[in-house]
Each structure stands twice: as structure tokens, then as C-alpha cells.
Amino acid sequence: MLNGSLWDKIILFALPLSLTGVMQQLFNTADVAVLGQFVGKNAIAAVGNNVSTVGLLVSLLMGLSLGANVVIAQFIGAKKLNRVRDSIRTAFFLSIIMGVGICAVAEILVNPIFELLAVPKAVAPMAEVYLRIYVLGLPFISIYNFEAAIFRSKGDTQTPLIALAVASLLNITLNLIFVTQFDLGINGVAWATTISNAVSAAILFYTLLHSAGLVRLRLDKKNIDKACLKEIVRIGLPAGIQGMVFSLSNLLIQAAINTLGPDAMAASAAAFTVEINVFCLTMGFGQAATTFVSQNYGAGNLPRCKQATWTALKINVLLMLILSATILYFDEQLVRFFNEDSEVVRLGVIRLWYIIAPEIISVVMEIVSGALRGYGISLAPALITLVCVCGVRITWVFTVFAKIPTYDSLMAVYGISWFITMIFLLLAYWYYVKRIKVVDFQ
């Protein structure tokens, strides 16, 4: 990451990371597909109802793990090997604490969340069962994300991908067995996901313990280094809040979707399954920007930090144009894969166009935010996202959607909120990068 050409290294880093995101989403894709084909559209609606809630919980864990990625990568770039070991150990124990803590809180809040979302009675029982079982797997999701961040900090995105590929295949297999052979329905799908998450975390844990390289996990010393913990939280918590803001605004939109009935809920779940996999490409290059900037910032090479940012942006824009065009060309077939109901397909196609067409805006947002986090600047993009995304969407739901309560009017808010957020993130990037100086990492 510190020398030579950038475009090839960024691609080799980002594509496996994007595929890892796809594998993570494959859990949800498999759940929706199996339920849609063997149980029914109400089961799809039940899973779709929980997407925003799950995203809210997982976003905090992923943000904190990103803080670990930045801190470890900066120490690697600065060649502070003892601090690398301390930060790895700290990140691992933080993952356990956060995973267990969020799991406990989430189980308590399930009923209040459902009341807030006004989940239809036809969907609520299945939705509650799925969410309660899924939440039990949060400690494993937390551990996996922190472990993956440790590998990414040194440029290894292949190992987390392999672990998740194994877990994804297991999830699909267990889904089919639990639903078609044991007739467990949504319970079986939820348990398959939880078991598979545990397997992915276990694979990376074993690999970290037996690694001969820089990122070996050593548990023979004190567990948590306070200085490393403070820095991980300083960078990771705002990143987690930024992700949670998206999920909070999506939670509000999900509540609005619920007022439109089970067909709209099922359509959104099906379309979301497609669009979130598209976002994985954006996420992969955003985290590539974070890691490349982190290591080069640690090494004191500011020009290469800027070069890495714009290289990642250009490659991501090009690939996203190709992928978005492909998705929109096959829009109806993609939605129909999850459910054949004509109204579900019609509404799902509408959502795809409102989300996928402006996806380039999301690319710019993710790369710019990722680069700022690589410098250790995490609070500014989080606040901008909070004000712009959440503010615009809340205002839209209670004004425009209240007057025009249609599926189209609701979906339009995504592109509008992204555009406003992108403008302010670009201004923040220009402001901070002009003032960044080389830091001596201790």
C-alpha cells in the first residue's frame, strides 16, 4: 500500500472486500429467497420489516470495527509493531464486549421497536421470532467484523472472504434443510443464519490465533490497552453512528412502508436484497480508501493519501456505472426471483429504479467519508450524515409523503437525501485535507 502503482492494488483489495459484503448479504438473500419460494410473501415481509432494525444494530458494530481497522493500519504504516499487537488484542476483546452488550439490549427492545414500526398483525408474529433469534447471533457478527478489520488493516481481504464464503454455503444448506425437510419456516431460516455467523467468526478466530504474520492474535498479555481503546472508539464510534443514522432513517421509512401494506413490505424486502448487494461494491472501495489512506498517513505520505482517494473514486464510479446499468436492465427478473406476485414485482421494480439509478452519488459519499476516516477524521462525516440524511428523510416523510402517501413519493427521498449529503461531505473533505499535517504516531 505504501509504494508503487495504486489502481491495481486498490482493485485487488476492494473486490474481495466487496465480495465479502455480498457474502454477508447472501445470508439475507438466501433467507428471502427460501421464504418467498416455500413459505409466502408474508414471511418475506417479516424479514424485510427487520432489515432496518438489524442494520441499526450491525452498523454500530461495523463502525467500531472500522475504527480498529484505521488504528491498526496507521501503526503498521508507522512501523510501530508493538502498538500493532496491542491494538489487535484490544480490538478483539472490544468485539466480545460490544456484541454481548448490544445483544442483551436488543432483546429487551424488540417489542418497543415493533410498536414504533406499527407492524401489521399478519406479519408481526413471524417478524418477532426472526428478530429475536437473529439478535442471538450479534456477538458472532461483532467478533467476525472486528476480526475481518484486523486482516484488512494489513491488506488481507481474501481470508475474511473465504471464511464468509464457507459460512454462506452453510447458511443456504441449512435454510433448505430446516425449511423443506423439517418445516421450521421462519424459525429455521433465523437459526441457520445465527449458526452460520458463529462459524464465520470461529474460522477467523482460529486463523488469527495461528497466524505467523503481523496480525497474530496473542492472548498472553493484558487484554485491553486503554490508549488503543480510546483511539478505536474515537474513530469508530462516529463511523458507527454514521451507519446507524442511515439505519434510523431507513427505520422511519420502513414504518411508512408498513402503512402501505404487506405487498409494499414484500416488494421493498426483495428490492433491498438486490440494492444492498450493489452497495457492497461501494462499501468495498470506501473501505479501501480508508485503509490505503490510513497506512500512508501513518507513513507520513500525504500526497499518496490524496492519490489513493481519487484513484478509488474513479475506479468505483466506472464499475458502478456498469453494474447499475445491468441491474436496471434485468430489473423485473431480479425482483421476480424472490416472489412472483405481480404487485410485489411492480413495486419492487419502482424501488430499484429510485435506489440504483442515483447510486453514483452514494459512491462519492462513501469514498469521501472513507478517506476522512483514514486520516482519523470520523466525527465530521458522521455529523453531516446525521443532519443531512436523517433530517431530509424525517422532513420528507412528515411533509411530502404525508400529503402524497404513495410508494413512489416515499422512494424519491433516497436520491434527494444522498445528493444533499454528498455536497456537504465534499465541502468537508476540501476543508480538512487542506489543513492535515503529518503526525508522529507513538
Structural class: mainly alpha
β-sheet strand percentage = under 5%
> Which residue ranges are poorly predicted, with pLDDT under 50 across at least 5 consecutive positions?
none
The total count of strands amounts to 0
Query: What is the mean pLDDT?
Result: 86
- Sheet with the most strands? none
- The shape, in one word, is globular
* Rg from Cα: 21 Å
Number of helices: 17
Q: Supply the number of structural domains.
A: 1
Q: How far from one another are the termini?
A: 21 Å
Relative helix content: over 70%
SSE succession: HHHHHHHHHHHHHHHHH
Write structural notes for this entry.
With 442 residues, the chain is mainly α. The chain has one domain. It is built from 17 helices and no strands. Helix 1 (7-38) packs antiparallel against helix 9 (262-298), helix 3 runs parallel beside helix 8 (226-258) and helix 5 packs parallel to helix 7. The longest helix is centred in the N-terminal third of the chain and has 37 residues, at 41-77. The radius of gyration is 21 Å and the shape is globular. It starts with 6 loop residues before the first helix and ends in a 9-residue tail after the last helix. The mean pLDDT is 86.
